[in-house]
Amino acid sequence: MKVRILSPSDGAKNEIWWADHWVKRDLEIEFAKQNHSVVDCNADLDFYLFGSYAQADKITAPIKFCWIYSHPDIVQDNFTAQFNHVFVLSKPLLLKVANSTLLFGGSSKTFVPRKEKAKYDLVFMGNTGSLKRIETLKYLIDLKKYKIGLAGAGWDTVLGSQIEGVDYQGPYIDNAKLGEFFNQGLLSFYTGHEDMRKEGFVAVRILDIFRSSENLCISETNAGLHEMFRNIPMYGNKEFLAPQIDWFLEHPDEREGVALRCRQDAAEWTFGRVVDEIERWMG
Fold this sequence. Notes:
InterPro entries: YkvP/CgeB_Glyco_trans-like
Strand order of the largest sheet: 2-1-3-4-5-6
Helix content: 25-40%
Number of domains: 2
CATH superfamily of the largest domain: Glycogen Phosphorylase B
Number of strands: 12
Domain Spore protein YkvP/CgeB glycosyl transferase-like: 142-278
Radius of gyration: 19 Å
Distance between the termini: 10 Å
Order of helices and strands: EHEEEHEHEEHEHEHEHHEEHHH
Protein name: Spore protein YkvP/CgeB glycosyl transferase-like domain-containing protein
Organism: marine sediment metagenome
Shape: globular
Number of helices: 11
Low-confidence stretches: none
CATH architecture of the largest domain: 3-Layer(aba) Sandwich
Mean pLDDT: 96
């Protein structure tokens, strides 16, 4: 079958900086492995990665699938009605989107063992698109007790003089080197968009961290994580994040044990599994 994947990142400025770009690429690789032809036009199946309506006017194939894997707060019923099938990233959204089934995310990353002692207590990678993310990082910097490595677009602007409290490695880290970046830190934290957290959407970035490195990621509270991990550490707000960071820094054996279990759990979530599930509905 000829498959075209439409992504919010298509044609965007700095397209390779978008996580959506790499999700699209990983899906294309897996579809090709399953002997489908990945095309840019005249597709038998258009697979729409929903994060916005930016590519909505390009959905023209006879068979139309959609995967709502980001920004569920902007999904409209009249948009999803056009698809033969809709996949959603979390159980709560099943009740809100007609003709939908559950499809968790995946990661294509390869594990990279830590070769040298970690340089940082904490690393973070991500842009400044979330106010809560900015507030959390500013709070941790103000505590003045952690060595922090940072990468992502916009931080040199929003942090002002606080940028001196971190080792800022620029707006973008090569996707192939994510494991090397996260291995520089013993810990990381994740906070995403509020609508995704409320709906239990688990970001691909969390899976990438565990599949590619020895880093232990502490995630903002998200009910969807319980579906994918046995005991990933979570925090409710920035004031509760710092004590967890302190505890894991003071207890290396426990930190490494939890990280190992999270890596084992993350190993199950691949894009090969994602495409296998999509194929069940392709007929």
